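Dear colleagues,

I hope this message finds you well. In preparation for our joint manuscript, I am sending the Calcium-binding protein (Ramlibacter terrae) sequence together with its predicted structure, so that both groups work from identical material. I would be grateful if you could confirm receipt.
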Amino acid sequence: MPPATCCSKPAAPTSRSARWCRARTATSRWWPGRTCCWAPTCWPGGEGASIALFAGRDLTQDEGTVVSTAGGVIAPDVAGVATLESLMAGTGAVSITAGSVVDGDTDPDDAEVDIEAAALVLGGAGSMGAADNALETTVDELAVSGGGDLFLTETDALDVATLSVQAQRVGADAAAEDADALNAAGLATGATVVRTLDGTLTVLAGAEVTTTGNTLLQAAGEEADLVLLAAINGGADLSLVAAGDLSQDADVASTAGGSVVLAAGDDVTQAQGTTASTLDGILAVQAGGTFTLSSLRRAQAPCASTAVRSSTPMRPATPTSTSRPEPSSSWSAVPSAPPAMRWRRRSTRSP
Ligand SMILES: [Ca+2]
Ligand SMILES: [Ca+2]
Ligand SMILES: [Ca+2]
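The corresponding structure tokens are as follows:
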């Protein structure tokens, strides 16, 4: 859950509970009734001159116009549609609350960056970007709440994080006061496509991704990895793709019967104790290097299939791991493969 107010932090956990949280990045609970203490990265009001934009209907930036700060916050708060051309916050943050967010660049080959900042947090129930016109960003950290569709293309490396961003609002007496902070942890979105063009994509601990539609998280570029330190809960088909390594350190699931694809140009590694699962969809793993298996699970299905392709022998998460697919599951992964590229499909039918 996002913090209640900007920069507020829950009481410091005990060392035991902190370890518990770190060991269970897929969960937000560390103790009955309490929450893991993932401190947000904060941009509190008053640090650097900020720009707050308020619109009761739409906000439209014309072609060639720029809203910029010298490291302060830029915070559009728009009831309707926010059409963006350029928001440049440098080492500051951008927070956007809007009915929907549209990239004003309509060229089909558009690559012009719309938002540059250290951090970007998006709120509002509508779509953020479109399938045929994603938002282009150059940011370090991203968090999205609201549940709308998200289409975002990042220039380089990107962390999905826990963020709290607050601007200052100038009153009729010329005094500045804190505007409402926009808080978000991870991604809470509909259909979701988040891609890097040339950099590693990391989902930080505590920043779970929960979507209600088809979902693609993709790290592109030379040696770009996909690192999953918090749970990924896809609402439909879920694809996790890395040009380099894919490291799964928390559970991955399609919760609504979709398929799950784990694909990497190099290694796919499931940390011991983690699971990739579907209700009744297909699970597919494709590794250019080694696939290190913890658990692939299909929960509800009269029949099932899984496909594993690896250029090297698949191995368990540890030499003595007992966390392979459980016998009660209706299917199991291919247990081993010779040291050559191979592609095997196995189907079973439960009793
Ligand atoms: Ca653009
Ligand atoms: Ca675009
Ligand atoms: Ca970046």
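For the figure legend, we might mention the following. The pocket of calcium ion (ligand 3) is lined by residues 138-140, 154-158 (CB under 6 Å). The chain is about 5% helix and 45% strand.

With kind regards,
E.M.
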